[in-house]
Amino acid sequence: MPDRVLRDNHNKHIGTIKTLSDGKQEIRDPHNKKLGTYDPKRNETRDASNRLVGKGNLLTTLL
Question: Is 56:41 a contact under the CB 8 Å cutoff?
């Protein structure tokens, strides 16, 4: 699956969501710094330090 580029109202690149081979998704900032991951099997979003953010896909809240 191709990367999903996230843009603001002015079409500025604010992040990218990548789908990994194991089905997990990760969000990265415009400088390619990892901000967090979402595991659909566990239905959990975790930040870059692996702390639980919440249940469900909350990746965009990490921007």
Answer: no
AA letter at 21: S
- Can you give the length of the chain in residues? 63
Residue by residue, pLDDT tens for the chain (63 residues) are 789 999 999 999 999 999 999 999 999 999 999 999 999 999 999 999 999 999 999 999 999
CA distance 63 to 2: 20
Domain boundaries, the chain: 4-62
Q: Give the predicted TM-score (pTM) of the model.
A: 0.92
Burial of 37 (0-12, 13-18, 19+ CB in 10 A): buried
- In whole angstroms, give the CA distance from residue 54 to residue 30: 23
